[in-house]
Amino acid sequence: LKEKTEDLRRERRLAEDLLHQMLPKSVARQLRKCQKVEAENYDQVTIFFSDIVGFTSIAASCTPLQVVEMLNNLYICFDTRIEAYDVYKVETIGDAYMVVSGLPERNGTKHADEIAKMSLDLVAAVRQVLVPHMPGGRLELRAGVHTGPCVAGVVGYKMPRYCLFGDTVNTASRMESTSLPQKIHISSATYEALLTDDAYEIELRGEIEVKGKGKMQTYWLLGNKNYSVQN
Q1: Does the predicted model carry a pTM greater than 0.90?
Q2: Cα four-point dihedral sign 92, 25, 101, 197
């Protein structure tokens, strides 16, 4: 009976660990208690999007197994790195990687700083990811960041997902799609949020035309004055 009880506890821990990798702990707790998870409004969060430069042509030149292996290597690297920051990985869609800070646990005004440090880390880390079928090649990342309000909640009954909604999500995605290889493209809202402690090297990109948004003043995040990202 003691052995069976311990086996049951072990299986329950494994199930909980798996659930916590798919949903925030606070949300998972409510779902386990069969409680309705209410959508929540957040006044300020910072959202990061990235994708692999030239992914379509890379994928076309290799087998499906090689594509999966390449993305798995990349995401294991990223997933390990982001544990050092106060951020939540929302999802991956193909080669797109989405991370947020400031929800589900609010962290005051720290969200822009946490995402900025993480962004610099990931852009440096991607150059170290080995691609088995491209021994001489290296992956490049295109990244975008925006700060603003959003709504978060669980959608779906089967394979429920914790999703973010609002214009902030769309704008962060636009920052990524209009970025350049190995560059972190940030909006003026994120720029202003990072000005508070004067810790970052930021360069004005200027006004650019953003689909659905018109002209926007944007910036390049170049580095942090207080530390350098190590390989």
Answers
A1: no
A2: negative
